[in-house]
């Protein structure tokens, strides 16, 4: 993955997402998911463009099923935006970059 995208999992979820001072966009994805591969470059571009303004993370739902279950992830890719540890927005499926960017700024 790109250098600016934060990879989250069950061990760093609380620190990276819930305790972040910046808004956090989390891409819930899996390696076998075609649409997830389509949106990956968009996620990487956002991470570059919003560096210092927001945190862009990816969570592999196959490797972290407990977090996916906790947030009711039923389809991927699912994009969730967290502010102050709370989910403030959710989008399911491939989204245009501008839509995702508008959730954060």
Give a short synopsis of this structure:
The chain has 105 residues and is an alpha/beta fold.
Write the layout of secondary structure elements.
Layout: E1 6-8, H1 13-18, E2 24-29, H2 34-49, E3 55-60, H3 65-70, E4 78-83, E5 86-92, H4 97-104
Parallel strand pairs: 1-3, 2-3
Antiparallel strand pairs: 2-4, 4-5
Domain Thioredoxin: 1-105
Disulfide bonds: 33-36
Keywords: Disulfide bond, Electron transport, Redox-active center, Transport
Structural description of this entry:
The protein is α/β, with parallel strands linked by helices. The protein has a single domain, classed as Glutaredoxin, CATH 3.40.30.10. The protein has helices at 13-18, 34-49, 65-70, 97-104; strands at 6-8, 24-29, 55-60, 78-83, 86-92. It has a five-stranded mixed beta sheet. A hairpin with a 2-residue loop joins strand 4 (78-83) and strand 5 (86-92). The radius of gyration is 12 Å and the shape is globular.
Output the helix-strand order: EHEHEHEEH
Largest sheet features: 5 strands, mixed
Low-pLDDT residue spans: none
User: Based on the structure, what is the oligomeric state of the protein chains?
Assistant: single chain
Mean pLDDT: 95
Roughly how much helix do the residues carry, as a percent range? 25-40%
Apparent shape = globular
Q: What are the salient characteristics of this protein?
A:
alpha/beta; 105 residues; electron transport; redox-active center; five-stranded mixed beta sheet; Thioredoxin-like_sf; single chain; Thioredoxin; 4 helices; protein-disulfide reductase activity; Glutaredoxin
């Amino acid at each position: 993955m790109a250098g600016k995208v934060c990879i989250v999992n069950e061990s760093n979820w609380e620190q990276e997402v819930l305790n972040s001072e910046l808004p956090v966009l989390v891409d819930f994805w899996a390696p076998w998911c075609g649409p997830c591969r389509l949106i990956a470059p968009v996620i990487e571009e956002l991470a570059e463009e919003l560096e210092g303004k927001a945190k862009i993370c990816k969570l592999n739902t196959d490797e972290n099923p407990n977090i996916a279950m906790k947030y009711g992830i039923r389809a991927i890719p699912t994009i969730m935006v967290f502010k102050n540890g709370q989910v403030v927005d959710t989008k399911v499926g491939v989204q245009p970059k501008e839509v995702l960017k508008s959730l954060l700024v």
